[in-house]
Every structure is written in C-alpha cells, then in structure tokens.
C-alpha cells in the first residue's frame, strides 16, 4: 500500500477522523425530559383506575393530533390541586409548573377504529414500572409494535395507512437514499425492518427490473452513460457486468464514438487508467480486443517487452496460479502458452529451456 | 403484465410472481422454523425471445430461528451482503449472537448466474463467502469487521477485508468504512459520512474513495488504474408542515477530468419538482423532474411522474439529445390484502419517437392456518 499517495491519505484521514469522532463522542441517545411526574402502574395497576377515566376522549379520537391527555381538572377529581404545597407531587419544578408538551405527530392514527375492533389499550401501551417517572415516552408505542399486527396478513401493511399521502420514496427517505441505503441496511438492519418487514423487500428492487421507474428514470436505458462514466454510482453493486452490460452493448453493437477516431490509439491507455470500469463494462474476460490490434500481444515471449498492460515484474499470484490448469485464463488473451520450460510465456517463470 | 409498443414491434410481457412465508414449526416468539419462497415466471404473449419464458427463483430458503438462542440460520437460495459485496447465492447464512453485544454473521455458497438462474453453479468456479462480526454498544455505536472472498471463472476474483464504524449522537450520525484488497495488497476503498438532523433540517456530507470495481482475475485487474474520489453534500429544509426545499451536490474527482452534478427541488405532500444539472466527465445534461401523488379516496391513489432532459453523453455527438418520459397511474386497494395498479407510460428518446407502455399489476396476499396448529401463515 502506497501511503504517499495524496488521494489515499485523504480518504484514510477522513475515515479515521470520522470513525474516531464516532467512537469518542458523548451521550448516546436523546431522552426528552418532562416537567410532569406521573406513574401509570401506580394508577392503573395498583389503584385499578380504568384508562378511560382520565383519557375520556379516546373512544371518539380519530386522528393522532387529538389532544388525548387529561387536563388538570381531571386530576382534581381525586387530587387537591388548589394546595400550593403539593405542586411538587406532580411537577418537577413546582415554582414554574408547566403542562405536558404535545408532540406534533407525523403519522395518522385512529384510536376509535382500533377500540371498535376490540384492540385493548394495553395491546399498544405497555405499563412498565417507572418508579413515579412520567411515562409518556416509554408508553408510546413505536413502529415495531404496530408491525406486530400490521404485517399484511392480520392487518393492513401499507405505507399510506399511517403516512397518508407520503407514499413516494422521497417523502420518507432523503433524496440521496438510493446511494446510502446499502450502508444503512448493513449497519442498522433492524431500523429498515420497522417498515420493511417482509422477507421479500430487498429483492423486490434487487431483482433488477425497472418497470415502474422506481429505481431509475424510464429512459435510463439511453442516459445511463452519464451516470456510469460520471461515477454517479457503482453500477456493479447491483448489476452483474458480465451479463448485464454486455447483453445490450453486444446485441446493439453500441460502441463509444471515440473508439472510431484516429486519436483513440494514443488516448485509450489514459482512458483505461482513468476509468477501467468503463472498459470492463463491454470488454469481456479474455476478450481478444486488446491483443487483436497488435499492441497487447506477446509476440516474442521475451520478458518485459510485451504486453504493455502491466509491469514485467508482476508477481501477484502464487506459483500454482490458475493459468496452469485453465487454457482459457485471461493471461492467454495476450500470452501464448507453450508448455515448454524457458519458452515464451512459460519461460517467464520456468527458467531456461532444457 | 407489462406491454410496450415501440415503432417497430410490440411486447406483452406477462409475469406471475409468487412469494410465500410458511411457518413450519413454532415453539415461541423467538424459536421457529420457516420456509420462504419468492419466484417469478416471465413470459411474452406477443414475441419470442431467447430466454423467455423464464422461471427465476429469487428466494428459496429454510429459516431456523432461536437455535442457539439469539441466532438465526438460513439455508437455500437467498440474497446476502456485507459492506464489501452482495450476491444472490445458493448456500448458507448464519447470524449468531456470541455475547449480548457481539454478533457474527457468516454466509457462503455458489453465486447465481443471471443468465441461467435455474442452475446451481459449481462451488469451485462461482462462489462467495463472507463474514461480519459486529460489536454494538447501547444501540448508538457499532463497530464491525467484514471479510469477503468471491470466486469467478474458477479463480478468486475478489478478496477483501474491511472495517466500519457507526455512531449516533443525538441527531448526528457518523459512519465510516475502510476496505483492503487482499489480492492486490492495496487499499480498496474508504468512505466517511456525517448526517445531521437538527430541527427542520437534513444535512449530509460524505467523502468516498475507491479503487475500480473490476475482478482481480481478469485482464482489467492488472491495470494500475486510478482511484475514484467523490464528494457529496445534501440538504433538505422544511419550510412548513408540508413544504420543504432540497438540494444535492456531487463532485467526482477524476484527475482533472471531473464530473459534477446538482439537484435542487421543492417538495410538498402531494408533489415534488426538481431541477437536475450535470457537467464534466460522462457528459452534460439538464432536466426537470416532477412527481405527483393524490389520494382520491382512502383506497384509491392517483399518481404521476414526468422527467424531461436534454443531454450529451459523448463529446463526438453533433448535438444534444432530448429525452422525455412520463407516467400516470391509479392504485386501488379494494381491501387490506389486495392491490390493483394500472399505469400508462410514455417515452420519447434518441431511438423511439413514441414508446407507449402499459403496466397492470394485481397483488393479493392471503393467510392460511393449518388445522390443529397453534400458528401458521
């Protein structure tokens, strides 16, 4: 590894700095703090008070933004709220008491519908022991809990059910999501599963068709060269180059216009070093193209003269490399196997002729 | 059904997809044995093409959960991935919990040929094995070590190790990964990304450095090719409950032959419109994209999209080319388990002055419970 290369140093530095920052930084999770002190287990489990006593509006609530928390008047049915000495019983800061803060919901939820279907409160709202703390955040169900029933079999599994009109990819994920999602799926698969529970989800895109234009624009067949050459994405992450690119490019005889210019003979080496993926998208393994023009052909078998694709002292393989048993190995696109020590390609390693 | 009538010929591709998840046995919520299948049959009513009709099995695996505790084992055809690569394989995958905060993911098998998916390839010629061991701390920090080896055409085409770290601090995520090529004994790639979600904002920036994705056992793997370097930035700002503006910038650094692209857009609940611009290596293009989504009724959705662009891919091309595509469709959900989609598509491009396509889709999911069983789907 050549660490003197500036681009390599820059990449490594970025990765190390980000990784180190990530490892050393402070508090892991944001925990909202409420002014209120309230224990659901104390009221519901110990005192046997029905949920509806305090949350009287719930049976008629049809949207998540309804304010379904009880007001202080409801507390006054049992507690003496006029006694200023007792404020500290419910408020952490009795000198500046404040009500529960309503959170703006981004999803739809119909309490009435669920209660009409005989879904009990405790199906979604668990009453964990909280030792007198406000239970708001812990008692609110997360999406994984919804998905226990909404799996498409027991109950509907459609984005629009909760996310209203937000059914397009861009509504839920940021615009660069296609580029980033593989990292997220690898690092935080459980986060993906909060919505995409079905086993088939990955393959529904990774099967490779684009009929609805969800992966690429419908005209992508004609404009994909912009992305492929401009490195918008690593095409090979999704597409098998051997089958995918060659299938069309060979059948349609699509060749870059630059190939037919006189300058190409001198230019193509630089082009190959700049973007070898581009060459590999059309030229197959063992493709005779490179040797056909008389350039990359090992005509004399003398070490170090030809071919010009790689250094003469190339030694990346062990002494039992696959070219010994495979006549179709890519080395033979340029070299000629002689089967004799000291002669031609074989002579590169096997010494002088006997 | 997907029909296309171009200037000279017509296609009427018909598809039948079937995916199922059967619970063969379940002891409790965590211990179970299931069979999952996902296959698609493709035919054509109008033309005859090589390879059509085709039956493609995407998934066919048995999944055993809970043995040992906290572990899952998959056996059969399945999609596998880690940070170093991905593939559809015929083989095994095991996700094992070593201790509470350490998980090990192992997979291996023969890779599936996209040309002959009905065949299981030779293990010595086409295979992939990989692993990922992950340490996680309080769901806010993860550190993983990855390994992947792939064989193509009978010899090793890719052999890499990599490390990645992810950290979340309040509304800021840090992610970085580095990979090393064990065949070329050189760095293979590095990426660093920071994403922040302060109130009403989405901000993301990354630097990506990678060597070309070419198989090491091909002539292309011998060329000492330049690495690709890219910088990306993305921002979204909510201006209200249903309105936000967004922007994206990407510059690919290719030794002076750079490529850059930018996107600016406006998004509301019901529509999105954006302007795309590219320049530099790869060509140049300008385009407008629009999307609309309207729920006519709770069970009926109308949607549409449009993308118009003027582009030039190769400098030798005498003039820019126009491309236009649009689609409009209805999505009807007559019940919880059924979905019907009818979509019309219209394209104009360099080859076809008029290409009209029709997509019709019916999806129905159903559940069955075997008599006497405690749970089955």
Topology:
The complex is a heterodimer of chains A (354) and B (377).
Chain A: H1 6-24, H2 40-46, H3 51-54, H4 72-75, H5 111-116, H6 121-124, H7 136-139, H8 143-149, H9 159-163, H10 169-172, H11 177-187, H12 189-193, H13 201-206, H14 220-230, H15 241-251, H16 264-274, H17 276-280, H18 289-292, H19 344-347
Chain B: E1 2-5, E2 10-26, E3 32-44, E4 54-65, E5 72-82, E6 85-99, E7 102-111, E8 127-137, E9 141-152, E10 155-169, E11 172-181, E12 186-196, E13 201-210, E14 228-238, E15 243-253, E16 259-268, E17 271-280, E18 284-297, E19 300-312, E20 321-335, E21 338-348, E22 355-364
Antiparallel strand pairs in B: 1-2, 1-22, 2-3, 3-4, 4-5, 5-6, 6-7, 7-8, 8-9, 9-10, 10-11, 11-12, 12-13, 13-14, 14-15, 15-16, 16-17, 17-18, 18-19, 19-20, 20-21, 21-22
Give me some keywords for this one:
heterodimer, A: mainly alpha, B: 377 residues, mainly beta, 22-stranded antiparallel beta barrel, 22 strands, 0% helix, disordered C terminus
* Fraction in helix of chain B: under 10%
SSE string of chain B: EEEEEEEEEEEEEEEEEEEEEE
Low-confidence stretches of chain B: 371-377
Sheet-strand content of chain B, in percent, reads over 45%
* Computed CA radius of gyration of chain A, to the nearest angstrom: 34 Å
The N- to C-terminal Cα distance of chain A equals 39 Å
Question: Class by helix and strand content of chain A?
Answer: mainly alpha
The total strand number of chain A stands at 0
User: What is the rounded Rg of chain B?
Assistant: 24 Å
Largest sheet of chain B: 22 strands, antiparallel, barrel
Oligomer state of the chains in this structure: heterodimer
Task: State the end-to-end distance of chain B.
Answer: 27 Å
Largest sheet of chain A: none
**DSSP E strands of chain B, number:** 22
Order of helices and strands of chain A: HHHHHHHHHHHHHHHHHHH
Mean pLDDT of chain A: 74
- Helical proportion of chain A, percent range: 25-40%
């Amino acid at each position: 590894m050549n660490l003197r290369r500036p681009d390599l140093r820059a990449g490594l530095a970025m990765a190390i700095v980000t990784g180190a920052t990530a490892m050393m930084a402070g508090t892991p999770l944001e925990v909202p703090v409420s002014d209120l002190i309230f224990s659901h287990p104390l009221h519901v489990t110990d005192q046997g008070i029905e949920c509806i006593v305090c949350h009287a509006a719930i049976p008629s609530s049809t949207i998540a933004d309804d304010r379904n928390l009880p007001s202080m008047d409801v507390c006054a049915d049992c507690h003496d709220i006029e006694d200023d000495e007792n404020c500290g019983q419910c408020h952490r800061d009795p000198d500046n008491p404040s009500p529960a803060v309503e959170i703006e919901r981004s999803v739809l939820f119909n309490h009435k519908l669920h209660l009409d279907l005989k879904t009990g409160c405790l199906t979604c709202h668990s009453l964990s022991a909280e030792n007198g703390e406000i239970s708001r955040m812990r008692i609110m169900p997360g999406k994984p809990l919804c998905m226990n029933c909404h799996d498409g079999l027991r109950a509907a599994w459609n984005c629009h059910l909760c996310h209203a009109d937000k059914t397009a990819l861009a509504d839920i994920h940021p615009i660069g999501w296609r580029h980033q999602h593989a990292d997220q799926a690898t690092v935080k698969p459980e986060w993906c599963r909060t919505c995409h529970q079905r086993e088939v989800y990955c393959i529904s895109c990774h099967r490779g068709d684009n009929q609805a234009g969800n992966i690429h624009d419908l005209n992508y067949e004609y404009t994909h060269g912009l992305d492929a050459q401009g490195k918008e994405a690593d095409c090979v992450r999704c597409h098998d180059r051997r089958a995918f690119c060659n299938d069309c490019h060979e059948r349609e005889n699509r060749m870059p216009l630059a190939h037919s210019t006189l300058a190409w003979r001198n230019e193509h080496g630089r082009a190959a070093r700049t973007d070898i993926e581009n060459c590999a998208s059309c030229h197959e393994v063992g493709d005779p193209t490179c040797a056909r023009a008389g350039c990359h052909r090992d005509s004399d078998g003398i070490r170090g003269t030809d071919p010009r694709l790689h250094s003469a002292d190339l030694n990346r393989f062990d002494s039992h490399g696959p070219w010994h048993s495979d006549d179709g190995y890519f080395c033979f696109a340029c070299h000629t196997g002689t089967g004799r020590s000291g002669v031609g390609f074989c002579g590169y390693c096997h010494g002088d002729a006997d | 059904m997907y029909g296309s009538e171009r200037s000279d010929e017509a296609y009427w591709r018909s598809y039948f997809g079937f995916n199922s998840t059967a619970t063969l046995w379940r002891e409790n919520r965590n211990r179970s044995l299931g069979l999952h299948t996902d296959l698609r049959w493709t035919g054509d009513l109008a033309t005859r093409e090589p390879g059509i009709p085709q039956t493609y099995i995407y998934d066919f695996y048995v999944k055993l959960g809970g043995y040992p505790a906290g572990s899952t084992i998959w056996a059969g055809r399945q999609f596998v991935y880690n940070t170093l690569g991905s593939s559809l394989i015929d083989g095994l995958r095991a996700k094992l919990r070593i201790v509470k905060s350490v998980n090990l993911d192992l997979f291996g098998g023969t890779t599936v040929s996209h040309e002959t998916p009905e065949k299981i390839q030779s293990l010595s010629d086409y295979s992939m094995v990989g692993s990922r061991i992950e340490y996680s701390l309080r769901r806010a920090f993860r550190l993983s070590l990855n390994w992947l080896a792939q064989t193509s055409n009978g010899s090793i085409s890719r052999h890499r190790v990599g490390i990645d770290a992810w950290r979340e601090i309040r509304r800021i995520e840090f992610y970085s990964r580095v990979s090393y090529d064990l065949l070329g004994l050189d760095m293979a790639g590095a990426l660093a990304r920071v994403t922040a979600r302060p109130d009403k904002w989405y901000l993301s920036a990354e630097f990506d450095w990678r060597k070309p994705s070419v198989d090491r056992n091909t002539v292309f793997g011998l060329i000492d090719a330049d690495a690709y370097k890219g910088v990306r930035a993305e921002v979204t700002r909510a201006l209200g409950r249903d309105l936000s503006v967004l922007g994206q910038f990407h510059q690919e650094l290719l030794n002076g032959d750079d490529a850059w692209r930018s996107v600016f857009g406006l998004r509301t609940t019901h529509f999105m419109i954006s302007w795309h611009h590219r320049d530099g290596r790869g060509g140049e293009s300008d385009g407008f994209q629009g999307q609309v989504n309207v729920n006519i009724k709770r069970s009926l959705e109308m949607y549409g999209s449009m993308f118009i662009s003027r582009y030039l891919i190769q400098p030798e091309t005498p003039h820019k080319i126009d491309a236009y595509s649009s689609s409009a469709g209805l999505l009807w959900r007559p019940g919880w388990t059924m979905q019907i989609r009818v979509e019309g598509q219209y394209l104009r491009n360099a080859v076809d002055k008029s290409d009209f396509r029709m997509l019709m889709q019916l999806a129905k999911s159903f559940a069955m419970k075997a008599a006497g069983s405690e749970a089955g789907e």
